[in-house]
Amino acid sequence: MTTLTIDIGGTKLAAALVDADLQIRERRELPTPASKTADALREALKALVEPLSSRAKRVAVASTGIIREGSLVAINPQNLGGLMHFPLVQTLEEITGLPALAVNDAQAAGWAEYHAIAGEIRDMVFITVSTGVGGGVVSNGKLLTGTGGLAGHLGHTLADPRGPVCGCGRVGCVEAIASGRGIAAAAQDELAGCDARTIFARAAEGNVQARGLIQHSAQVLARLIADVKAITDCQRVVIGGSVGLAEGYLGQVQHYLAQEPSVYHVELSAAHYRHDAGLLGAALLAHGER
Questions:
Q1: Is 60 exceeded by the pLDDT of residue 69?
Q2: CATH number of 3-105+276-287
Q3: Is pLDDT above 80 for 211?
Q4: What is the CA radius of gyration of the chain?
Q5: Separation of alpha carbons 86 and 3, rounded Å
Q6: Smallest Cα–Cα separation from 223: which of 168, 274, 261, 171?
Q7: CB of 221 within 8 A of CB of 253?
Q8: Binding site per annotation, positions for ATP
Q9: Domain boundaries, the chain
Q10: For domain 119-270, which CATH number applies: 3.30.420.40, 3.90.226.10, 3.30.300.20, 3.40.50.720?
């Protein structure tokens, strides 16, 4: 059965037709609308999925934020241009005429990544470092979502009590420092106003400030991973996202994690499905493989 899968992120919207064997047959992308209105997201989703929906039997959407009873409740509204509540399942069922399912994007990606290595381990944590920082926790072969959908929102754990205010309202969250948005917000002088992609490019050119910003992000992420190991005793942590998969970033995280006491060490790997993990995880969950 073909599933129309959608991935809603802070930077882009992606949609694909995914077969039962997890093969992507067609994929489309659009920028996430910067407008702070539900109408803008609704129209963007309509434009994205209408060319694909006639060839699918169901819809599965993976979205940034908390998914609660089919609605998107943004824990950090800045990641979706200020959008706080959105009836995700209802909207997509109205657009496509198909039954829909919604799940947090990092939870979906974590399930896809676990699916890729399920024969090897039973406990895994996925962390995405992108516009924000999110996570998906698999414990004893089961994806944890929580009764309110909050499980796995690792980016909103504390990194620095004197750090910047996070979009969720807390002070010093991992997301406020280590994410692409956090890296960009900390840039000063000649890098002020640059996005994370530009900062990574400048770091590759040898810019000292750019390198320092990325190193700080990697160090904060390594500390988060040590915390995750202490809480879950996971066997592997998989890193994804545009920042997490950027060249050289995982190596820096491994360097800083190695400086933690050995009890907090855990195997790290890059996401097997790269930037398609959210799409494929949503399809797996729609298939009932959970």
A1: yes
A2: 3.30.420.40
A3: yes
A4: 18
A5: 22
A6: 261
A7: yes
A8: 5-12, 132-139
A9: 3-105+276-287, 119-270
A10: 3.30.420.40
Any residues with CB less than 8 A from the CB of 235 and at least 6 apart, and which?
A: 121, 122, 123, 124, 266, 267
Report how far residue 16's alpha carbon sits from residue 25's, in angstroms, rounded to the nearest whole number: 7
pTM to 2 decimals? 0.93
Predicted confidence (pLDDT) per residue in 170-196, tens digit: 999 999 999 999 999 999 999 999 999
If we measure between CA atoms, which residue out of 113, 91, 120, 220 comes closest to residue 164?
A: 220
Strand partners, 144: 137
Binding residues: 5-12, 132-139, 156, 166, 168, 173
Q: Beta-strand (E) ranges in 22-176?
A: 24-31, 58-63, 66-68, 71-73, 85-86, 100-104, 124-129, 133-139, 142-144
Q: Report pLDDT for 36.
A: 65
Q: How far apart are CA 205 and CA 221, in angstroms?
A: 23
Binding residues for Zn(2+): 156, 166, 168, 173
